[in-house]
Amino acid sequence: QLQFVESGGGLVQPGGSLRLSCAASGFTLDLYAIGWFRQAPGKEHEGVSCISNEDGVTHYADSVKGRFTISRDKNTVYLQMNSLKPEDTAVYYCQGVRPWVFTTVEAMCVKGAAAFGSWGQGTQVTVSS
User: Fold this and answer.
1) Which of 46, 57, 75, 100 has the most Cβ atoms closer than 10 angstroms to its Cβ?
2) What percent of the chain lies above the pLDDT cut of 90?
C-alpha cells in the first residue's frame, strides 16, 4: 500500500504563509500524479491542488487560485500557501495515483476526494489571529 507522509503544517496568522511537503514512504513519487486535499472540521475532504507526474500540469481549486502553488521534484511534492485565510484551516493530505487513473489532474482534484478510501495522518494547518 502506498504511504504518503505530509509535513509542514502549523499555526499561522491570516495573511501568513506555509509550505507543505509530501514525501513517499518506500518509493519515489515521480511515477505518480499527486494531489493535495484537505478536510476542514465538520466537512468532507476536498481537492486543493493536483499536479501531473511528467509534464507538470497543475490544477487548483477556485478557492486557492492565486494564493497556493504546487510544485514537485523527484522525491517531494510541495504546496506553497500564501495569503492564508481562516477558511484554509484544515488537515491537509496528499495522495498519489498512476497517471492513467484519472483522465486529467483536474479530474483527480475534483473526483479524488470521494474516490480515495483511506487517508494518512495529514498535517494540520490552522490560520488564526
Assistant:
1) 46
2) 81
